[in-house]
Amino acid sequence: MSQLHPNLDLDQANKDLQGKSPEQIVEWALTQAKNPIITTNFRPYESAILHLVAKQRPDITVLWVDSGYNTDATYQFANKLIHDLNLNVVTYIPKQTAAHRDATMNGIPGIDNPQHDEFTEQVKLEPFRRALDELKPDVWFNAIRKDQTEFRQGLDVLSLSKDGVLKVAPLFEKTDADLDVYLEEHNLPNEHDYFDPTKVEESRECGLHTQL
Hints:
The longest helix is centred in the middle third of the chain and has 20 residues, at about 115-135. The chain is globular and about 50 Å long. Helix content is about 40%, strand content about 10%. It has helices at about 10-15, 20-30, 45-55, 70-85, 100-105, 115-135, 175-185, 210; strands at about 35-40, 60-65, 90, 140, 160, 165-170. By secondary structure, it is of the alpha/beta class. It has a six-stranded mixed beta sheet with strand order 3-2-1-4-6-5, with helices on both faces. Keywords: Oxidoreductase. InterPro entries: PAPS_reduct_dom, Rossmann-like_a/b/a_fold.
């Protein structure tokens, strides 16, 4: 039970949404929202979730935590999507510059380096917590999918953050092949030259969906 959603039966809602289309899931979730946000890092297939939600709620706040380590291609992809979809993007950045961090940590710490957790805290988790604290959303749309990591196979379309924000994953049951079809149908761009320095390996969790 969440103070933000005191009348929501999460288990029942997840059962009710089984078999529903992503569009229907977004439509339902927006009925629960007074201040919804969607988070993005402009990784591959992000154009699908952004298009899916923004076509129903064009003015929705799009939260982008920019670590400062994205590839040139990812920044160009972000610029194109923000322009083409007329997204209402709010950008949060780490409190430390990449240059300061590179000097202090001798570059990006590897995942076996004891400093990697602090690196992840600085470039992703702290800015996200700060954003959620300041934006105060009650519904958080995200693009997680069941087939991405072992941890996510134990989740569902709906879950609650530690602060009681309703996290909604409309594409949870979808595969890359499904999203390829969606992108083609809607003439949306994709971009695969993406690197997340906090995850490094695709099957790792960075902590965003395990700690927040």
